[in-house]
């Protein structure tokens, strides 16, 4: 069994606290380790058997939510440290059955007590980003996920609206899309807001993590 904790806001420390165990991390994110640790590249995925792993890998590649993973197997009291480009780290502890949706580029690590897959949640629109997301679900109480934020993150309680290019993760209900198809936005001219669509959580009960930085994504239309 592993325990995650954040060090200096920018690093994750994973400590094996009970005999031995394994975690899955973003490949290349390990920056130091202590004790008996073994690191292996995950060729397909962390699913329980080869068939599920193969189908999971294909689904993630098709949806753009594939993340190169590394498996770390450790003995008691071993520790590893993980970081990625000095991005801020947030650790979320999941209850049994609780799910967390994470943009794949923001996922740093998760314990082996998490189920890992991709999910389609679009509602019939052609979105710039966000129709697919990565889902981590706790198989048992105490499952943990570490996510990355480009800058110090903010956690919002729903109801709220979020720019999908600033979205990191959320728990609870899936969002709806608010699409602005005004003439100014289609042309990309002066006077348009620049926020062509948003993700909206209209009911209470969901927490949304956002970062103070927007990804470079989307489809931009303009007429010169």
Structure description:
There is one protein chain. With 224 residues, the protein is mainly β. It has a single domain, classed as Double-stranded beta-helix. Helix content is 8%, strand content 46%. The chain contains two helices and 19 strands. It has helices spanning 50-63, 183-187, and strands spanning 2-7, 11-16, 20-26, 30-34, 37-42, 69-75, 79-82, 88-94, 99-102, 107-111, 114-120, 132-138, 143-149, 154-157, 160-162, 167-171, 176-179, 197-201, 207-210. The protein has a six-stranded antiparallel β-sheet, with no helix packed on it. A six-stranded antiparallel β-sheet has the order 11-12-9-16-19-14. The chain has a four-stranded antiparallel β-sheet with strand order 1-2-7-4, with no helix packed on it. A hairpin with a 3-residue loop joins strand 1 (2-7) and strand 2. The longest helix has 14 residues, at 50-63. The chain is globular. The N and C termini lie far apart (58 Å). 30% of the residues are buried.
């Amino acid at each position: 069994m592993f325990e995650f904790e954040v060090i200096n806001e920018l690093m994750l420390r994973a400590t094996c606290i009970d005999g031995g165990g394994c975690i899955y991390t973003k490949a290349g994110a390990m920056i130091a380790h202590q004790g008996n640790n073994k690191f292996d590249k995950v060729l397909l995925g962390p699913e329980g058997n080869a068939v599920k792993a193969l189908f999971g890998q294909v689904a993630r590649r098709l949806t753009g939510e594939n993340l190169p993973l590394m498996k770390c197997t450790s003995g008691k009291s071993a520790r590893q440290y993980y970081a990625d480009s000095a991005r801020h780290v947030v650790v979320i502890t999941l209850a049994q059955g609780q799910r967390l949706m994470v943009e794949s580029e923001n996922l740093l690590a998760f314990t082996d007590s998490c189920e890992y897959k991709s999910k389609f949640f679009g509602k019939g629109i052609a979105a710039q980003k966000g129709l697919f997301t990565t889902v981590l679900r706790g198989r048992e109480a105490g499952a943990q996920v570490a996510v990355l934020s480009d800058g110090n993150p903010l956690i919002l309680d729903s109801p709220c609206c979020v720019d999908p290019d600033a979205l990191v993760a959320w728990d609870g209900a899936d969002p709806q899309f608010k699409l602005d198809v005004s003439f100014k936005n289609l042309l990309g001219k002066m006077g348009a807001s620049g926020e062509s669509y948003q993700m909206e959580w209209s009911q209470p009960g969901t927490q949304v993590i956002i970062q103070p930085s927007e990804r470079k994504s989307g489809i931009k239309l303009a007429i010169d």
